[in-house]
């Protein structure tokens, strides 16, 4: 009956981790009180980018905007080069600082620096204070709880395997496997529910922020319009406003230039 100890370990891990996930999901789903003034305003491109994709999307927007204005060069190999070292706002100056004094850098370290840059953090804090963005703590708690349930699921499988090895074949391993199937079903179903139900709460925008995003007149994602022979940042039909709006909301899939998409996708973890 030594296998019963393994079963107790499996059940404890499953119950504790699933309970933590439920509590984290409930806390993340609690309604936020948005600022009435914030709900009535129009989002800036930076704000729309943060609510759609977080600090990474803000970085994408800045890089592409500066590239379209020929103040940065983005190569399809994933390198960024400074052309105009004078940033027009704090976010652009953060990009130039992240690239470094040599004026050239791979996109990956620039992305890492931008994610923690003071202006980007301040933008997120303003949106959280206005009730438009989900607090980082809520997002982190759900993500940590999901990882704990995954670990518990793996532990159930390992303890089940160890328990089955302790049971002689002649004694019948079917009932033992059935007992372990219950905590395995609990953890697996919790992960599935988290994927379907808790995933919306891991978004950057709160319900109020999502409503503001829904009011943005986003142009269709562009699959054409790039001039033949154009380089990175030199494509499209010239309407940068529509392109940057689509980028802020949809991400790099909205970029019509394959070279520009390659410059970002290959080094931003897409």
Structure summary:
Helices cover 63% and strands 4% of the residues. The chain has helices spanning 3-29, 36-39, 45-68, 90-99, 107-115, 118-129, 136-166, 174-198, 207-214, 240-250, 258-265; strands spanning 72-74, 79-82, 104-106.
What does it look like?
Helices cover 63% and strands 4% of the residues. It has 11 helices and 3 strands, in the order H-H-H-E-E-H-E-H-H-H-H-H-H-H. It has helices at 3-29, 36-39, 45-68, 90-99, 107-115, 118-129, 136-166, 174-198, 207-214, 240-250, 258-265; strands at 72-74, 79-82, 104-106. A 3-stranded antiparallel beta sheet has the order 1-2-3. A hairpin with a 4-residue loop joins strand 1 (72-74) and strand 2. Helix 1 runs parallel beside helix 8, helix 3 (45-68) runs antiparallel to helix 6 (118-129) and helix 7 packs antiparallel against helix 8. It is elongated. The model is unreliable at 223-238 (pLDDT under 50).
How would the global form be characterised? elongated
Distance from N terminus to C terminus (CA atoms, Å) equals: 49 Å
* Strand/helix succession: HHHEEHEHHHHHHH
Helix content: 55-70%
Overall mean confidence score, pLDDT: 82
Total helical elements: 11
Uncertain runs with pLDDT below 50, 5 residues or more?
223-238
- Outline the biggest β-sheet: 3 strands, antiparallel
Strand order of the largest sheet: 1-2-3
Structural class: mainly alpha
Count of extended strands: 3
* Percent strand: under 5%
């Amino acid at each position: 009956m030594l296998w019963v100890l393994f079963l107790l370990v499996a059940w404890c891990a499953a119950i504790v981790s699933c309970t933590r996930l439920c509590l984290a999901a409930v806390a993340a789903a609690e309604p936020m009180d948005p600022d009435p003034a914030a709900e009535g305003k129009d989002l800036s491109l930076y704000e729309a980018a943060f609510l759609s994709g977080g600090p990474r999307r803000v970085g994408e927007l800045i890089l592409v905007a500066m590239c379209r204005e020929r103040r940065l060069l983005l190569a399809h190999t994933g390198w960024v080069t400074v052309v105009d070292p004078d940033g027009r706002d704090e976010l652009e100056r953060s990009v130039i600082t992240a690239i470094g004094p040599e004026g050239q850098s791979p996109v990956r370290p620039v992305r890492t620096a931008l994610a923690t840059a003071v202006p980007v953090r301040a933008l997120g804090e303003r949106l959280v204070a206005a009730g438009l963005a989900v607090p980082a703590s809520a997002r982190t708690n759900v993500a940590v709880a999901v990882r704990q349930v995954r670990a518990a699921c793996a532990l159930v499988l390992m303890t089940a395997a160890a328990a089955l090895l302790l049971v002689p074949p002649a004694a019948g391993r079917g009932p033992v496997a059935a007992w372990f199937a219950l905590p395995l079903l609990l953890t697996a179903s919790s992960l599935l529910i988290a994927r379907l139900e808790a995933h919306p709460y891991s978004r950057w925008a709160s319900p109020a922020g999502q409503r503001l995003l829904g009011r943005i007149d986003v142009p269709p994602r562009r699959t054409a319009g790039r001039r033949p022979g154009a380089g990175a940042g030199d494509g499209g039909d010239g309407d940068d406003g529509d392109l940057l709006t689509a980028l802020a909301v949809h991400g790099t899939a909205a970029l019509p230039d394959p070279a520009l998409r390659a410059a970002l996708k290959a080094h931003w973890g897409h």
